[in-house]
Amino acid sequence: MGDHFEKGQHALLNEGEENEMEMFGYRTHSCRKTLCLAGSVFSFGILPLVFYWRPAWHVWANCIPCSLQEADVVLLRTTDEFQTYSRKKITWIHLSALNSAFGLTPDHPLLADEEYIINRAIRKPDLKVRSIKVQKIRYVWNNLEGQFQKIGSLEDWLSSAKIHLKFGSGLTREEQEIRRLICGPNTIDVEITPIWKLLIKEQSVKLHGLVASHNSITVSVCGRQAGVQELESRFLVPGDLLILSGNKVQMPCDAVLIDGSCVVDEGMLTGFNTAKGDLVRSILYPKPMNFKLYRDAIRFLLCLVGTATIGMIYTLCVYVLSGEPPEEVVKKALDVITIAVPPALPAALTTGIIYAQRRLKKKGIFCISPQRINICGQLNLVCFDKLPGSPQLCLGQGFAMGPAVCCHDSCHSLVLLDETIQGDPLDLKMFEATTWEMAISGEDFHIKGVPAHAMIVKPCKTASQVPVEGIAILHQFPFSSALQRMTVIVQELGGDQLAFIKGAPEKVASFCQPETVPTSFVSELQIYTTQGFRVIAVAYKKLEMDNHTTALTRDKVESDLIFLGLLIFENQLKEETKPVLEELISARIRTVMITGDNLQTAITVARKSGMVSEDQKVILIETNETPGSSSASISWKLVEEKKHIAYGNQDNYINIWEEDSDNSREGSYHFALSGKSFQVINQHFSSLLPKILMNGTIFARMSPGQKSSLVEEFQKLDYFVGMCGDGANDCGALKMAHVGISLSEQEASVASPFTSKTPNIECVPHLIKEGRAALVTSFCMFKYMALYSMIQYVGVLLLYWEINSLSNYQFLFQDLAITTLIGVTSKPFLKLSSYTCFPQIFFACGNPVVPASI
C-alpha cells in the first residue's frame, strides 16, 4: 500500500549508510482521523494498540499520500531484509523569538554563508524550519534541494582552509543561538521507560545514568565576541571553537583539529562519528533479528488470541443468561483474555536473558544487545580474527646500526603520553628490541626542518654505536588494512630527510628497486612463514631537503625504495587458546580463522592451535585472474604434498572430493585461501563458493570488506555465525555476524553486541553456554506459560459455569511465584555438549492443547 508513489512523495534518508531508510510523505486527513478515533472508542482501545505495533497501518488509516514538501507525517521504512516501519511527525522550529533579541531580518541570510544547510532550511518570511527526529538525529528540510538533510555537524563540502577561515575565531553569539535552536542540544536523552512499558520492554534506568554523566562535561569554548567561556557540553553547536588543555580530555563531540597537536585514543572509534553517540544509538535502536523462536512465539500467541476470543464469547453468554450486571459481564470477559494470553509472558521470556546477562557481567563480558544472548545458544560456527597471542621479536637483536635500525625505531604509530610509550603492541615490541628512547622536542628546539613538539627517537645513552644523534618524525602515512603498509617521513638530526616503509613483504618488495631485493626473497619468506612466524618487510629512500613534507603524496614517497630486510616475530599462542578451540570442536562447533596475516603463517598457527589436527590435510586454493579479462582459473594444492589440481572457468564442473577417496569424509581436509582468491571465486566461480566454504577453515590476507562478505556467505549456508576479534579491522564482520564479540578493555564497544574485558578467546565458550541456558530457559518458560494459561483458562471457564472464579491471591501465586522460580534457577551446564537446542514452539506447545481440550 505504501509502494506506489509519485515523484516528490518518496526519498531515501541516509543513502548508502548502515541506517538507510525510505521516506514516504503523508498528510493527515480529518475524516479518516475522525473515523479512527471512533474506532478506538468502539474497540475499547484495541485499535490504538494495533496501531502502536503497526505504525504503517496507523499512517495508512489516518493519512493520504502527498509530496514530502506538503507532508505533516512521514512513514519510514528500513531498506534491510526486515523492512521495519516507523512513523514520525514533522515539527516546526520557530526562530521568531530570535528576531527581536538580535534584530534578525528575513531579507538577509541568518548565517554568514548562504550555502549552509541552516540558511537553506529557514522558510522566509516567517522564519520557520521543518524538521523530523529519527533515532535521536535531527533532519531539516532543505527548501532549495527539496529534501531532508542531517543537521548537527559541519557541512561535508567545507575544506580545511574554509574551516580555518570561517570558524578559526569562533562564532558570534547570535550564530550560536541560531545553531543551538535548530540543531538542538549536544546530548542524547534516554527516557526512563514508564512502569507499564517495562512489562514488554527492557529497563533503561542504567543506560539513562550512563549517558547523563557524559551529557554534563564542561568544555572551554572561544567565542568571537565573548572570548573563552566554560560551558556544559550539551550547549555546544556545530562550528564552536573548543580549547583543549591538559591530558586525558573527554571529547563530547566530533571535532576538527585546526591548531596544535593531540593524541586520540581510537580504541572505540569506528569511522566519522563519535563512538559514544553511535554506542548509545545502537543500544536504543538495535538491529532486528530474524529469530525463529520469536517468529513461532508470535504465531502461537495469535492462536491463543483466537482461543481467548472463543472463551470471551462463552463468558458473555453465560453471564448474560444468568442475569449478571453489565459491568460484571464485561470484567469477566476481559479476564478471560488476560488468562488465555498472559500479560506476563514477555517479561517471563526475558527472565532467562536478564540473569544470563548478569552472570556474563561477572565474568567480564558486557552486552549492549541482550536479545542476542539467546542467539548465542544456537551458534554452530565461530570465526576468529587471528588467534590472540604475545608477539616476540625473534631476529631483532644484534642489528648493525644503520638504516634498518632507524626504520625499525621510527616507522611506527607510538606516542609518548604521561612519560609512557603507548600504542600498538607489535610496534611497542619492535621499539623495545633496540632500547632506543623517545622524547618530544621543546619550544627551544632549533634544527632546520624540525618543528617544535615533534616526536624524536634517539639511541640510549649507553649505546655502543650511535649512527645518528636522533630522528625526528615529521609526517606519517598511517597503516591501512587495504594497503597493508605504513610510511613515515623523518629527518636525522643535523642530517638528511628519509622515508621509511614497513608492511606486508610482498607489498613492500613491489615498491623497491628490483636490484635491491635479494633473489632468495621468496624462498626465505616461505621458510619463516611456514614455521608460523609473522614477517614484516622494511625499506627506505632519501628525500630532497627542499621538499615540504605535507606536500609530498604517498605515491611519490612510496616509490624507488631500497629494500632493507625482514623483521621476524613469533606470535606465541596464549595458554588458553588451544583448550578453548578443543572444547568448541568437541561440541561440533566449527572454528574458522579470518586474518590479515600471511597465508603460510595462518596455516601454521591453525595447526599449532588445534584448529587443524595433525591427521587432517590442508588444501591451498589459488586463483589466477587475467587483468582486463573475464577469464580466471583455480588451482588446488595439497600443502604437504605439493599436489596440484587445476580448474579453469572453461570447464563445466569439478568435484575435488573425488580426487582422493580418503579425503571424502567430512572434516578430513581443510581449505585455505587468500582474500584475493576469495574475491575471484566469489566473482567468477560463485557456484563453487558454497562447496569451498563448507570445508574452508583458513582465510588469510583478508581486507575488512572481505571479512564482512565472508561472514555473510556463511550465513547464506544457514550457519549461525559468531565473530571474535579486536574490533580494529573487523568492525564490519563483527556487526554482520549473528553474534559479534570484541576483545577490548572497554566495557562496551560500538563494534559488536558483546565485549570481553579479558583479551583472550575464553569468553567464547562462556557466551555459548549462557546463550544455551537463556535459550532453553526462554523455551521452557514459554511452554510452561502456555501450559498453565490453558489449564487456568479451562478451570476458570468451568468456574464461570457455576458463576464463580479464582481468588486474587490464587492468580498472584500462579502468575508470579512459580514463574519467577523457573527463570531464576536456570543456570548453564559446566561443559559444552555436542547437542544444540533448536526449539520448535508449535511441536512442544501442541501438548498443552490436549489437557485443555480434556
Automatic annotation (TrEMBL):
<dbReference type="GO" id="GO:0046872">
    <property type="term" value="F:metal ion binding"/>
</dbReference>
<dbReference type="InterPro" id="IPR008250">
    <property type="entry name" value="ATPase_P-typ_transduc_dom_A_sf"/>
</dbReference>
<dbReference type="InterPro" id="IPR004014">
    <property type="entry name" value="ATPase_P-typ_cation-transptr_N"/>
</dbReference>
<dbReference type="Pfam" id="PF00122">
    <property type="entry name" value="E1-E2_ATPase"/>
</dbReference>
<keyword id="KW-0472">Membrane</keyword>
<comment type="similarity">
    <text>Belongs to the cation transport ATPase (P-type) (TC 3.A.3) family. Type V subfamily.</text>
</comment>
<dbReference type="GO" id="GO:0005524">
    <property type="term" value="F:ATP binding"/>
</dbReference>
<dbReference type="GO" id="GO:0140358">
    <property type="term" value="F:P-type transmembrane transporter activity"/>
</dbReference>
<dbReference type="Pfam" id="PF00690">
    <property type="entry name" value="Cation_ATPase_N"/>
</dbReference>
<dbReference type="Pfam" id="PF13246">
    <property type="entry name" value="Cation_ATPase"/>
</dbReference>
<keyword id="KW-0547">Nucleotide-binding</keyword>
<dbReference type="GO" id="GO:0015203">
    <property type="term" value="F:polyamine transmembrane transporter activity"/>
</dbReference>
<feature type="domain" description="P5B-type ATPase N-terminal">
    <location>
        <begin position="17"/>
        <end position="142"/>
    </location>
</feature>
<dbReference type="InterPro" id="IPR006544">
    <property type="entry name" value="P-type_TPase_V"/>
</dbReference>
<dbReference type="Pfam" id="PF12409">
    <property type="entry name" value="P5-ATPase"/>
</dbReference>
<feature type="transmembrane region" description="Helical">
    <location>
        <begin position="297"/>
        <end position="321"/>
    </location>
</feature>
<feature type="domain" description="Cation-transporting P-type ATPase N-terminal">
    <location>
        <begin position="167"/>
        <end position="202"/>
    </location>
</feature>
<dbReference type="GO" id="GO:0019829">
    <property type="term" value="F:ATPase-coupled monoatomic cation transmembrane transporter activity"/>
</dbReference>
<feature type="transmembrane region" description="Helical">
    <location>
        <begin position="782"/>
        <end position="801"/>
    </location>
</feature>
<keyword id="KW-1278">Translocase</keyword>
<feature type="transmembrane region" description="Helical">
    <location>
        <begin position="333"/>
        <end position="356"/>
    </location>
</feature>
<dbReference type="GO" id="GO:0005789">
    <property type="term" value="C:endoplasmic reticulum membrane"/>
</dbReference>
<dbReference type="GO" id="GO:0031902">
    <property type="term" value="C:late endosome membrane"/>
</dbReference>
<dbReference type="InterPro" id="IPR001757">
    <property type="entry name" value="P_typ_ATPase"/>
</dbReference>
<feature type="domain" description="P-type ATPase A">
    <location>
        <begin position="217"/>
        <end position="271"/>
    </location>
</feature>
<dbReference type="InterPro" id="IPR023214">
    <property type="entry name" value="HAD_sf"/>
</dbReference>
<dbReference type="InterPro" id="IPR059000">
    <property type="entry name" value="ATPase_P-type_domA"/>
</dbReference>
<keyword id="KW-0460">Magnesium</keyword>
<dbReference type="InterPro" id="IPR047819">
    <property type="entry name" value="P5A-ATPase_N"/>
</dbReference>
<dbReference type="InterPro" id="IPR036412">
    <property type="entry name" value="HAD-like_sf"/>
</dbReference>
<feature type="transmembrane region" description="Helical">
    <location>
        <begin position="35"/>
        <end position="53"/>
    </location>
</feature>
<keyword id="KW-0812">Transmembrane</keyword>
<keyword id="KW-0479">Metal-binding</keyword>
<dbReference type="InterPro" id="IPR023299">
    <property type="entry name" value="ATPase_P-typ_cyto_dom_N"/>
</dbReference>
<dbReference type="GO" id="GO:0016887">
    <property type="term" value="F:ATP hydrolysis activity"/>
</dbReference>
<protein>
    <recommendedName>
        <fullName>Cation-transporting ATPase</fullName>
        <ecNumber>7.2.2.-</ecNumber>
    </recommendedName>
</protein>
<dbReference type="GO" id="GO:0006874">
    <property type="term" value="P:intracellular calcium ion homeostasis"/>
</dbReference>
<dbReference type="InterPro" id="IPR023298">
    <property type="entry name" value="ATPase_P-typ_TM_dom_sf"/>
</dbReference>
<keyword id="KW-1133">Transmembrane helix</keyword>
<keyword id="KW-0067">ATP-binding</keyword>
